[in-house]
Known about the structure:
The protein has about 120 residues and is mostly helical. It is about 75% helix and about 5% strand.
Amino acid sequence: MRLLLVWLVNALALIALPYLMSSIQVDSFAAALIAALVLGLINTFVRPLLVLLTLPATVLTLGLFIFVINGLLFWFVGSFVQGFHVAGFWSAVGGAVLYSIISWALSALLLPGKK
């Protein structure tokens, strides 16, 4: 049940992004649900592998390369999912940061704490 609530919260965070950044567009709530699902799957399976492969660059940049990885994955989902559009790389980096902040804030407000 909690997984479905997290999925809905992430979709709501995606719906809020176009109001903060004009370079990101979400056409419908269904597109936001699909994009949130794809983002979750990519962050679960692909991101850890990318972080491991780029560990030297991440250490060299004191962890800032993680923003590049997050932006690239966000941009990839924007080019892959119909109805979810990201204008460019820097828009994707900013969108990924805002998406994580909004998702964290909504999760803290709406989801009950773990026991």
